[in-house]
Specification:
This protein is of the alpha/beta class. It is built from seven helices and ten strands. The chain has a six-stranded parallel beta sheet. Helix 5 packs across helix 6. The longest helix is centred in the middle third of the chain and has 19 residues.
Amino acid sequence: MTERPKAIRPVSQRATHANVMIYGMPGVGKSPLAGTSPKALVLECGPGETNSIKAAGLEVDVWEITHRQDLEEVHEYMRHEGSAYYDWLWLDSISMLEGRMMGEPMEDVVARNSHRNRLVPDKAEYLKVQNTLDEFTRWFTALPCHFGMTAHVMIGQAEEMTEDGEKTYHETYMPAIQGGQGKLAQKICGYFDIVGHMEKVRVKDTVIQR
């Protein structure tokens, strides 16, 4: 009889790192929430994205992300010594990162074809950016540390049928990640253990809670 493959092990031996996705309107408090994480490194993917963390007086380290190479460096660092120093890695936010990731392929396109407008990407450029977001989300959720991601919210409308056969509509909320008419957002959410929509609610007309 052959031996049992060494790759088989009890599920209890799996790492217990959490992967968390928080999405909501700008200003709702996603970044300050990330800043409350102990021993956190925040990847700033938009201009001033972490200003609210500083304003809240929270002590975290920040790494500005402007190019794909930055993400590769973060991944390599956190795979090794970084995960021993930081308990949490936050990407803030994927919605802003999407815009920055589009800059690189458009620079290449315009360099090859001067008739192309760098502000008007085609399907191929969108697909490249979407695959990049998907790839790095998979990489980061597999790191030996807790990983969090923020996103803006995309509000839509869903149709339902009542028992009487009448159509009704209700608002839907998804992370603002372009691709496949919401399919990429759903796929990326699937990499996370916890996905939460963050909003402000008023309690007794005086206190606002998140």
